[in-house]
Amino acid sequence: MSLPEPHPALKTPFVQAVGIRYPIVQTGMGWVAGPRLVAASAEAGILGLLASATMTAPQLEAALAEVRSRTDKPFGVNMRVDSDDVQLRLDMMIAAGVKVASFVGAPNAKVVERCHAAGMFVIPTVGARRHAEKVAAIGVDALIAQGGEGGGHTGVVPTTLLLPAAVDAVAGKVMVLGAGGFYSGRGLVAALSYGAQGVAMGTRFLMTEESTVPEAIKAQYLAASVTDTVVSTKVDGAPQRVVATDLIRALEAKSWIRSLPKALANAHSFRRETGLSLSQMLREGAAMKKGNELTWSQVVMAANAPVMTKAALVDGRTDVGILPTGQVVGALDGLPTVADLVAEIVTEANATLTRLTGA
Fold first, then answer.
1. What are the structural domains, with CATH classification, of the chain?
2. Are 269 and 305 in contact (CB under 8 A)?
3. pLDDT grade, residue 66 (50/70/90)?
4. Which stretches within the chain are classed as H helix?
5. Closest to 241 in 3D by CA, of 315, 285, 180, 178
6. Quick check: 290 pLDDT over 70?
7. Which helix (H) or strand (E) holds 145?
8. Residue 324 forms beta bridges with which residues?
């Protein structure tokens, strides 16, 4: 399928600022958004975000080089705001000519200034109106407002309420993108009607041909319905939407104390996987506690999520791993290429806009 010409309404200021063709973002999903998926997204005319939070610094450097070898189009990198080596990672991104710096949560003003000095566009993800106001005050360029329908760590406010509230909160200051529940052209138009500049999609791009998730795991996602997800705090202490597997049901039945030994073991595995020293992990834990209003018990459990996500999405083991997902998983029925998916979304958005405007 060839890539269609976008309807004039799809040529939003965000599209023009970032240098892409369509107002769609492929989110930085840990263990999923690697060079192959990001480059395919860039080539399809959207913004692909490379997931660096689950990479060591050398792995990030190699991934940046691979993306650049596959495409010369704009792309971004998703980072943790509490990363101990954030300045080193920014150095690598600047050297690779990365267009967008994406953050889970609010980056500090110093990081935003560094990104702007290098010509990078800054986009954090938020889950509440007050968080949108906070990042706008820091001086970011855009924000992604993710509603409760979204996959992985998510809030409680549905997108239909959060998105217009975030748009109103930062009107005239910061561009807003919607996330959580988007997978189609009609959804893209709905987001634009709320005043958003575009949409960000995670699960929809996880379920593509270029995604490196094992085929058996993709089959489990395809078998899930919109009622087969649950928001659990038993993985790492923070609300996280996942497929309701037998493992999740077992975790839900456990107390935090009974989960502690496994959490400590996972923290050790995560430290080995990412190359972090114990002191770095403690500093990052303290930053997470302060920046996300977590308890120390939640901080101790925080390493569960990346380790258990890797077990399923990389190693293909759902007996010990989790399947982060948005509720849209139940609406997906295929594994298209990224190019075909983007073409399908834009074609539907074009037709919807034409129908609504009569033009």
1. 8-212+332-357 (3.20.20.70), 225-324 (no CATH)
2. no
3. very high
4. 13-18, 35-43, 57-70, 86-95, 109-117, 129-138, 159-169, 185-193, 203-206, 215-223, 246-252, 256-274, 278-292, 296-301, 304-313, 338-357
5. 180
6. no
7. strand 142-146
8. 242
Residue 336: burial class (beta carbons within 10 Å; 0-12, 13-18, 19+): middle
Gyration radius from the chain CA atoms = 19
> Is pLDDT of 288 > 50?
no
Transcribe 34-103 into DSSP letters: -HHHHHHHHHTTSEEEEE-TTS-HHHHHHHHHHHHHH--S--EEEEETT-TTHHHHHHHHHHTT--EEEE
Strands 47-51 vs 100-104: parallel, antiparallel or unpaired: unpaired
pLDDT at 294 over 70: no
71 HSE (CA, 13 A, CB side): 24
Pairwise CA distance, residues 37 & 81, whole Å: 23
Q: How far is CA 254 from CA 262, 272, 285, 330, in A?
A: 12, 26, 23, 27
Residues in the chain: 359
Tokens 């690598």 belong to residue: 92
Q: Which residues lie across from 244 on neighbouring strands? A: none
Q: Please tell me the predicted confidence (pLDDT) of residue 229.
A: 97
Two tokens at 98?
């990365």
Determine the pLDDT at residue 140.
98
Beta strand 47-51 with 76-80: parallel, antiparallel or unpaired? parallel
Name the DSSP letter for residue 7: P
Cα end-to-end distance, the chain, whole Å: 24
Cα(81)–Cα(52) distance, integer angstroms:
11
pTM above 0.70, yes or no: yes
User: What's the mean pLDDT when you consider all of the chain?
Assistant: 89
CB of 102 closer than 8 Å to CB of 125: yes
Please choose, from the candidates 138, 145, 137, 143, the residue with its C-alpha nearest in 3D space to the C-alpha of residue 164. 145
d(CA 295, CA 274): 23
Cα dihedral sign, 243-247-253-256: negative
